[in-house]
Design goal:
By secondary structure, the chain is mainly alpha-helical. Helix content is 55%, strand content 1%. Mean pLDDT is 90; it is low at 1-5. The structure holds zinc ion (2 copies). Residues 102, 106, 200, 213, 229, 233 line the site of one zinc ion (ZN).
Length: 303
């Protein structure tokens, strides 16, 4: 992962057979709808499952584990990890390690998913399906890897997905399983993937960052606030990605509610000089390194 080059070799070949479960979930989702027939109750189950698990990805995997944009207790940190695992996007350590690489080298050759470097479909999903990106560089997530429970759930990620799917089946039979897991997960995957693909292509730029990130209100609605991606690349320390009141950011609103309930705290906002586009100092990718340094300082995070 820390290789300084992005030379294409056999580690960049898509492992079609190894990734049969990924394609299988797509097939079962489509076949399941054909078998059960369309239903609004199914859509409702899929939407609820999508919303809850997407929050775990946006507020948990992304804004907490990857960026350390707020603080929480060790138990709630584990809750976020387990909720995120049900989204079937690998574990929090893997997710955060790769996302930190994306910000550090955004749209440069070392970026793990860059439309500019490798094209749309690579950035959307092919980067996940290759050997090069299968492992986790623990050096990038020392602040997370120090927690044995996070290493455990990251290592046994598949069982949390299986448990979620079985629970849906036990509660609501095939109807709940197909809509609540298979259909919802496919939409959730591609909803998340669009942040790496469309959000570096389709929209407008408020900040002249060195990458191609853009803001897009439609993507922000569909992804609980992640579509304000240019804002986020410019000032990644903030737990808030919609910088103005009209930039809807549902993940941030839920985080503020959790802050009122004292479940999370030190939720980082947007300084006025950033919002006004008057940077007091250059804002760089070193933000993540600084956030991690703060996180590993005793007494400043979950302990
Ligand atoms: Zn990010
Ligand atoms: Zn990006």
């Amino acid at each position: 992962m820390s290789s300084a080059t992005a030379a294409v070799d056999d580690r960049d070949q898509i492992r079609w057979v190894d990734n049969l479960p990924f394609w299988g979930v797509h097939v079962i989702a489509i076949a399941g709808i054909a078998w059960l027939g369309f239903s609004w109750s199914g859509v409702a189950i899929a939407a609820i499952s999508y919303g809850v698990r997407l929050f775990a990805i946006t507020a948990g995997y992304h804004r907490y584990f990857s960026h350390r944009a707020y603080k929480t207790s060790r138990p709630f940190q584990l809750v976020l990890a387990v909720m995120g695992l049900t989204a079937t996007q690998k574990g929090p350590l893997w997710w955060a390690a790769h996302h930190r690489v994306h910000h550090k080298y955004s749209d440069q050759p070392q970026d793990v998913h860059s439309v500019r470097q490798r094209g749309f479909w690579w950035a959307h999903m092919f980067w996940i399906l290759v050997k090069r990106n299968a492992g986790t560089d623990l050096d990038r997530v020392k602040d997370l890897a120090k927690f044995p429970e996070l290493r455990f759930v990251d290592r046994h990620q598949i069982w949390f997905t299986v448990a979620f799917a079985v629970a849906l089946y036990l509660v609501g039979g095939a109807h709940a399983l197909v809509w609540g897991y298979f259909v919802s997960t496919v939409v959730l995957w591609h909803g998340t993937f669009t942040i790496n693909s469309l959000s570096h292509v389709w929209g407008w730029r408020r900040y002249n960052t060195t990458d191609d990130s853009v803001n897009n209100p439609l993507m922000a609605i569909l992804t609980l606030g992640e579509g304000w991606h240019n804002n986020h690349h410019y000032y990644q320390r903030s737990a808030r990605q919609g910088f103005y009141w009209w930039e809807v950011d549902i993940s941030f609103y839920i985080l503020k509610l959790l802050e009122v309930a004292h479940v999370v705290w030190d939720v980082q906002g947007v300084p006025q000089h950033v919002r006004d586009h008057r940077p007091a100092a250059p804002v760089s990718a070193d933000d993540i390194d600084a956030a991690v340094a703060r996180a590993v300082t005793p007494g400043t995070t979950a302990s």
